[in-house]
Amino acid sequence: TLTSSIRIGSRLAAHGSSMGRVLLADLSMDELSSLYFGHRFRRYTDQTPANLEELREMLDDDAKRGYVLSRSYHERGVVSVAAAIRDTTGDAVATIKINAAENSIAAVALEGTIKDDVVETALTVSSWLGAITHASVN
């Protein structure tokens, strides 16, 4: 059994959620620094970044991969995969995400077909918005 504190309409800190990380990974380092200047990072679990440098490292990896794979990032026992939906300029304007109880899904499925389906769906929706997409899922 998994109990979540997240409900419809919940607001999550961008640094503490997989969808937020997808959007933050699209920002330049200057934009990110400006956004988080003087910010105290709330850690939801030990996987949540404690400071801007940890967040930057995560975002660099996320941007290279083209998606976010989260294990207990915001809540213990919850896994998720998120990817950006892009507009005609190539900017991330939304995200798509799937999450599940960690013990209900095999790691190979999460990192394989589920991740691939999330990324492919994001690319499809992006193409509907006129984005020119060139997928490379690592």
Short description:
The chain is α+β, with helices and mostly antiparallel strands.
Layout of helices and strands:
Elements lengths: L17 H7 L4 H8 L15 H14 L2 E4 L6 E9 L5 E10 L5 H22 L10
Largest sheet, described in full?
A: 3 strands, antiparallel
The number of helical elements comes to 4
What is the number of strand segments? 3
The N- to C-terminal Cα distance equals: 32 Å
The gross shape turns out to be globular
State Rg: 15 Å
Mean of residue pLDDT values? 85
Which stretches are low in confidence, meaning pLDDT under 50 for 5 or more residues running? Answer: none
- Kindly report the spatial arrangement of strands forming the biggest sheet: 1-2-3
Spell the H/E element sequence.
HHHEEEH
